[in-house]
Each structure stands twice: as structure tokens, then as C-alpha cells.
Amino acid sequence: MQTRFDYLQASFFSFLIHAVLFLYLIGFFYTEKQIRPILSKAVSVNIIVDEIIPKKIDPEVIEIPQAKKQEIVSLSTDNKLDFEQPSNQGYINDLQSLIKQESDISDLSELEKNIANYSSQMIKLIEDAWIKPKNIQDGLKCDIKIKTNVQGRIVSINLIKSSGNIRFDNSALQAVKRVETFSFFKELNKDIYDDIFKNISISFNPSK
């Protein structure tokens, strides 16, 4: 009986020693606990947006290369040519001179009518091709220089005086570009083309 008691006592102490060793090994008695941070430092997030710089619209657009520069002729539907009228003073003794003067005046008057007619056709074609920009004021006007070839094809377009509104100016230039060719040029003789319609300056005011 005593032997059994001693055996149980020895077994208990052995178990106790092994339990203490086990707890020691797993750090049960280590009182200073390491505190692990849950989160690291805060992260700063920046959204970078590229600045959109609006392109400057240069009203003097639509340049098609062409050779020599020539004198610019101002064109409008109200254009009139000034011609020297014969003097009413004095006597005209030579009947042939009188007939010749009257014939010259008649020819000049016909030329003036033709130029006014062609000018009106040109302006109407441009106005018909014009698309009015939204939300712009009425009464705007800009001056445009047009260069054409003998077939009536537009070879260059330049803004020479701005209306002060870039959208209106560009809409006028685009209207001229849409026309492309003035078909009535086939009716022009070479002198009228060279003197009047090769280089033209127009005032674009469609609301007038």
C-alpha cells in the first residue's frame, strides 16, 4: 500500500515538473507582451489630374498655298464703281466723239452691273453655307480675304478684321471653305477676273 502511494506521489510530481517546463517553453510566464500594431502609418493618396489647357483658336486659319500676291479688291453687294462723267460745259462739235463717249459710258454701266451681280452671287453662296454658332449676339461682322483661281476655286482664306468673337469669325471662315468653288467664274472674262475677283475682301455680316 505504501509502495503504491509513493508511486502515485512520484507520478504527480513528475507531471507537475513537466507541466511547468511546458508552460515555460511556450512563454506562459513571460509577462511583457509584444504589442503588434494593427495598422501601419496612414497612406496619403493624391489624385493627379492633368490640367487641360484650352487651345488658342487662331482665327486666321484655312490657308491654302498659292503663288503671287495681288492687290485686294473690296467687295460687297453695295459696291459701286465711280466713273468720270462727261463734262456738260462747252460745245461738242464732233458727233463721232459724242457717240464714242456715250458708248463708253454704256459699256462701263454694263460692267458695273455685272460686277454687282457676281458679287451678290458670291455673298449669297457664302451666307447659305454659313452655320450660325449657338448663343452668339446679332450684329457681328468680320472681314475676310479670299483668293481664287481662274476656275473659281478658293485657294486661300484669311481673316483680316475680327468681329471680336472667335466663334463667329471661325464660322465665317468655315462657310467660305464649304463653298469651295464659285461656279459663275466660267462667265467672267479674264480682265474682270484679274482686276476684281482674283483677290477679294468681303465684310461678312449675315444678320444685316
Strand fraction equals 5-15%
Contiguous helical run count: 4
Numbering strands along the chain, what is their spatial order in the largest sheet?
1-4-2-3
Q: Any idea of the CATH class of the domain at 95-204?
A: Alpha Beta
CATH topology of the domain at 95-204: Fusion Protein Consisting Of Minor Coat Protein, Glycine Rich Linker, Tola, And A His Tag, Chain: A, Domain 2
What is the helix/strand order? HEHEEHHE
As residue ranges, the low-confidence spans are 32-54, 61-74, 76-96
- Which term fits the overall shape? rod-shaped
Distance between the termini: 133 Å
What can you see in these coordinates?
The chain has 208 residues and is of the alpha+beta class. It has a domain of 110 residues: Fusion Protein Consisting Of Minor Coat Protein, Glycine Rich Linker, Tola, And A His Tag, Chain: A, Domain 2, CATH 3.30.1150. The protein has 4 helices and 4 strands; from the N terminus they run H-E-H-E-E-H-H-E. A 4-stranded mixed sheet has the order 1-4-2-3. Helix 2 packs across helix 3. The longest helix has 35 residues. The radius of gyration is 48 Å and the shape is rod-shaped.
List the helices and strands and how they pair.
Elements: H1 2-25, E1 73-75, H2 95-129, E2 142-148, E3 154-161, H3 166-179, H4 190-197, E4 199-204
Parallel strand pairs: 1-4
Antiparallel strand pairs: 2-3, 2-4
